[in-house]
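Thread: Newbie trying to understand structure tokens

Hi all, I'm a second-year student working on a class project, and my supervisor (Dr. K.) asked me to get a predicted structure for one chain before our next meeting. I've only ever worked with sequences, so writing a 3D structure as a token string is new to me. If someone could post the tokens and maybe explain what I'm looking at, I'd be very grateful. Here's the chain:
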Amino acid sequence: MRESVLRKISGRSAVSIVAVLAALSVTACAGKPKKPTLAYEERPVELLYSTGANRLDRGNWNEAVDYFREVERQHPYSEWSRRSILMTGYAHYQGNQYADAIGDADRFISLYPGNPSASYAYYLKAICYFEQIVDVYRDQAATEQALAALRDVVQRYPNSEYAQDARLKIDMVNDQLAGKELAIGRWYLRDGKTLAAIGRFKTVVDRHQTTSHTPEALYRLVEAYMTLGLTEEAKRNGAVLGYNFPGDRWYADAYKLLNDAGLKPAVEPLKAGNKRNLIDRTLNREKGSALAPPGEKKKKGGLMGVLGM
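---
Reply by user tm_fold:
Sure, no problem. This is what the structure looks like when written as tokens:
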């Protein structure tokens, strides 16, 4: 008798617990808005695609994604479906939904690795990483990812328009990485950690010598070596600076520093050296600088020429 009562109580408790969990589940779902999707309605593929492109032109990124996904759902084996994957990625990119855009690009590459448009998928991934680069005083993980992805585009498709744009962005990324090394080196120098600072400045000179930060890095090496009393090293770096950047203000500063110490360099600063080198490749992360998917011609405010429509 007692066992039977316990069994009934246990059964009621289980039912109650299930009811409570179900109620909580419904409440949680109700509190989290779902991403809007189109109700299924069979429509011509051209209409779906052109409507998606129209929403893209208007800056309605999520609506554009819905229409391009509908193309894939209703016409999964068509040429339009293949193109819609890249257009979905492009819409996600325009909406700053970089993780989704990278996912779309990876999906295209996985499904159509040999397709000519795969070049754009690799490019799309690269510009997504590129636009996530932060200032030199913060972590540069995205910068390294961007550099690797941009180099991948150049190596895979060296003669494409995407490679041409990637090369320009690689220069900007290298400038960013050089700026990071220089900023850390300056901090070490101010903190009295001269050897650590020298390591950072040498990295700029050795690995990023074509960037706008090289003249300052060479000057900082002169400054650091003078601090340590290593005059020959200071003279050598000053000579490199004078030979390559005789009209740069950083060389004018290095010349004065060495001259005041009785180590007059052989090369006189040029008169144009009243200003420091201002050739700085600033990161251009504007959406307008990115190339559109293949077959889509960009116009002011949107796209045109969607498969001849």
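A couple of things are worth pointing out once you decode it. The two ends are 81 Å apart (CA to CA). The first strand starts at residue 297 and ends at 299. Feel free to ask follow-ups in this thread.
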